[in-house]
Structures are given as structure tokens and as C-alpha cells.
Design a protein that fits this description.
alpha+beta; 6-stranded antiparallel β-sheet; 79 residues; globular
Length: 79
């Protein structure tokens, strides 16, 4: 079941299915390497809608809560 990145549990991984939002938001996400088909791991999230840290390969980046809501992921079902 696909969900936005903010709903993914910390430490969970998933595959980016799609990017929503306007042209500038999608451009910013793509510049960070967050593109459909890429595998990411949600490392942590701050309380109260703070930034979310994700890892793609060897690179970790922090994105804002509102930008993270635009990233639709398919969570890995492997345990």
C-alpha cells in the first residue's frame, strides 16, 4: 500500500513510486536524488512536523515535512 513519506516509520525503507506537487517542488526533490524508482530509508523525523532525514545510497539528506508529503513511497515488506 503506497503512502507518503511522512507516514513511513523511522528506520523503514521503501521505493519511491511518484512525486506530487508543483514543478518547483518536483525539481527540488529530483535535485536531491529523490526520483521515482529510487530506494530510500527514512532515518528519522523531528516532532511537530519538523524535517525528515532520509538516506539514498550513501547520502543522507533532510527535507521539510511539507516536501516529504509530496513523496509517495511503496514500503518494503521484507522483515
Amino acid at each position: 500500500m503506497n503512502k507518503d513519506l511522512t507516514l513511513l516509520d523511522s528506520g523503514a525503507s521503501g521505493k519511491v513510486v511518484s512525486l506530487q506537487g508543483g514543478l518547483m517542488a518536483i525539481k527540488k526533490l529530483k535535485a536531491l536524488g529523490i526520483v521515482p524508482g529510487s530506494n530510500i530509508v527514512k532515518k528519522s523525523a523531528a516532532l511537530m512536523h519538523g524535517p525528515i532525514i532520509i538516506q539514498r545510497g550513501a547520502v543522507s539528506v533532510a527535507i521539510g515535512f511539507n516536501l516529504a508529503k509530496l513523496v509517495i513511497v511503496e514500503p518494503d515488506t521484507k522483515k
